[in-house]
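Allow me, if you will, to draw on your knowledge of protein folds for a short while. I have a record of one protein: its chain in single-letter code and its fold written as discrete structure tokens. I should value your view on which stretches of the chain appear to form regular backbone elements. Thank you for your consideration; the sequence and its tokens are set out here:
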Amino acid sequence: MIDPSVVYKNIIEILDKNGVDYKLFNHRPVLSYEESAEVQKEVGYYGTEMKCLVMKADGRFVTYVTLQGNKTNFDSVKSFLEVKKIKLATAEELRENFGAEPGCAYPFGFDKRFDIFVDPKIYNQEWVLFSPVLPTKTVQARGEDLKKVFGSLENKVSEVGDFNQT
């Protein structure tokens, strides 16, 4: 089992190492976009929510980082990855492989064997919001700074703009 507090420290170290302009907010637990919108008003952070999907593609985990509100076209993902079967990771798989609860998947800081696919539109956002694995914390970071972060990772990172339904 992966310890979420270790993952959290790793995420913050990655942000610091890459000189990311970010703010960290503490708040009541948030496990959905609806709760996040409420807490956003209570705590005062702002920006565009990132959506981090953990998918299982023919038995291997991959992540897709995009913006909240985008609907993922799983047929496009399946075709791009040249796999027969793709599905969202289960709650148990998220906990076991990422140390995350549903609603707290995070964009980086996990094992390097997991490939990351990034919607480059996140880089155009002034501020993006994401969970650093813990449901009581939110990171508000400059979108343009995340390009440096993804470029610094040991994971295989690919920019893809065609995983979203239009």
The longest helix spans residues 4-17. The two ends are 37 Å apart (CA to CA). The mean pLDDT is 94. The CA atoms of residues 11 and 117 lie 17 Å apart.
